[in-house]
Amino acid sequence: MKMQKKWKQYLAAAGAAAGVFLVMKYLVPLLLPFLVGLFLAVLVLPAARKLEEKFKISRSLTGAVMIFALLVLLGWGLVRGAAALIVQAQNLFEEIGVLTEGWEHMLDNCCNAVERYVGIASEDTREFLLLQFRSVSSQLKEKFSPAMLSYLLRIMKGSIAAVTTVVISYVFAVLLVKDLDEWNKKLNRWPALVKWKKIWQQMLHAGGRYFKAQIIIMVIISAVCMAGLFLLKNPYYLIVGIIIGFLDALPFIGTGTILIPWAAILLLQGEAAQAAGYFLLFVVTAVLREFLEPKLIGGKLGIAPAAMLASVYLGIVGYGVSGVLLGPLTLMLLQAIFREWGWWRVRE
């Protein structure tokens, strides 16, 4: 009898996992504008409620103004960031002559090393590598125009979709600010919905804690990278530091994806001190993440770090790039469901 009950529980758990996966993969993208609207409404509702009680101003009006201001501020930040990136990219292209000399110097060092250790003449190695480079360049030029056109079309479609999402999210958020309290009262009358509301709140609480910790770590790593690159006299310390900090937040990538190859290139160019500086910066950021992550997240989520890493990997496999976010959210939602139904016993 107990075995039969366990099998029923296992089947129910497997069904819940399959259901959550299907919802995350197919339903969440469709409902994204409304989920963003719900997030914005919940964000401004407490302030809108207080202003209504104190000054008798309609919460719909104050909510609309606050949400609009929030979206404008976010848009301004994105535009400023993009502008800074474009300026630094322009500066990089203007200095391409200096960079080309550096690459040629590195190529000479590589060819000399091959001649020294393998016995192949450095001139032959250089000629072979340049021939391969020209071949690849010509192939890229042939495919560049159609690929560029396709890329521009994707950007246009993505821009239209993004604007549509923002507009729908804004309108939905403004409507929710007015009616969310009433909706909560109606939901509380249905016992089944109350249980799902608890599950949703648990998942949001765990997810908020996890992503808040990741954002804090990303900001700290970015600041350390910017300071380190500034000390190493890198003219692009600001934008490169931000990019490295962002990459560090992504699983399986980390700061070493940029800093270690950069250090290797500098070493091949004969700049051992600079190479050591970049490698030291990688070590510092890696140790810093290893120290911060347990402190900010630790066992508070009730999820083992290995399980969280596996959720990100499986999320990428199952959902694509969005699995970086949806993978952990899926695990947290399943945790909330299993805990509510008495199935979750890990690290409790």
Could you please describe the fold and organization of this structure?
With 348 residues, this protein is mostly helical. The protein has a domain at 190-348. 87% of the residues lie in helices and 0% in strands. It has helices at residues 2-55, 59-94, 96-117, 122-187, 191-231, 237-249, 256-268, 272-296, 305-319, 323-340. It starts with a helix and ends in an 8-residue tail after the last helix.
Annotation keywords:
single chain; 348 residues; mainly alpha; 10 helices; globular
Radius of gyration over all CA atoms, rounded: 26 Å
Categorize the overall geometry.
globular
Alpha-beta classification = mainly alpha
Count of helical stretches: 10
The overall pLDDT average reads: 76
Runs in which pLDDT lies below 50 for 5 or more consecutive residues are none
Write the layout of secondary structure elements.
Elements: H1 2-55, H2 59-94, H3 96-117, H4 122-187, H5 191-231, H6 237-249, H7 256-268, H8 272-296, H9 305-319, H10 323-340
Helix pairs in contact: 1-2, 1-4, 1-10, 2-4, 3-4, 5-6, 5-8, 5-10, 7-8, 9-10
Quick structural overview:
By secondary structure, the protein is an all-alpha fold. It has helices at residues 2-55, 59-94, 96-117, 122-187, 191-231, 237-249, 256-268, 272-296, 305-319, 323-340. The chain has a domain at 190-348.
